[in-house]
Amino acid sequence: MDKVPPFASQRSVWHFHPLEFPEILRSAEFPKTPVNGELTPIEFIHFYNGDKIDDTDYEEAAKELGCEVAAIKAVAKTENGPYGSYFKFEDNDDYVPAILFERHHFHKYTNGKYDQFEDISNPVAGGYGATSIQYAKLIKAYALDKKAALKSASWGKFQILASNYATSGYASPEDFVFALSKSEKNQLKAFVSFIKADRVLLRSIRTKDWLSFAQRYNGPRQKGYDLKMERNYNASL
Fold first, then answer.
1. What global pTM score does this model have?
2. 3-state class of 145 per DSSP?
3. Can you give the residue ranges of the N-acetylmuramidase domain (predicted)?
């Protein structure tokens, strides 16, 4: 009688505790980014689908706004910084939309209720910190007040605050964030809608009045955004 061969599988077997398995499945459902040193699933954003803005998209947007393509690109280059439209910090994390968390907005939307956490709630603008800590701030605020937290961050290539969700074409901050996290194309669509909804922004991007545009887009206390936009516009010609 031939010798029976050993059982084929000699590989390691992974065992999951029943209570851990749902958490493993949950973490696979959402994009992950480093938060306080740990790769963390972000439940309120969509996976980036890779759709980037192309020349045709820019041309259609410019036609809809009645402005130059170079004017739109100048705003984008000024707003999105060295990281571009999405953050990716490590080899094993996912692309997540570029954000800047603004503590004075969170203070405003929560009526100062969480001002004991000065890094995320403060009547004074500033204290932004490094790009790498923006999601840590957002997650901390999100645990306290979800809607206010989302509204207090600016998102994507054009850094539009989620508080502008309605004029950007969305029914809620959640819908806005979900869509803008999905693609650059959605970020451009939101920008076009946002600009069209504001007469000052629309007029100033058409006439390339960068000071008026920056004061409206970045706030009356903007510091040098108008000059950066003008430089970026001239560099693209």
1. 0.87
2. coil
3. 68-234
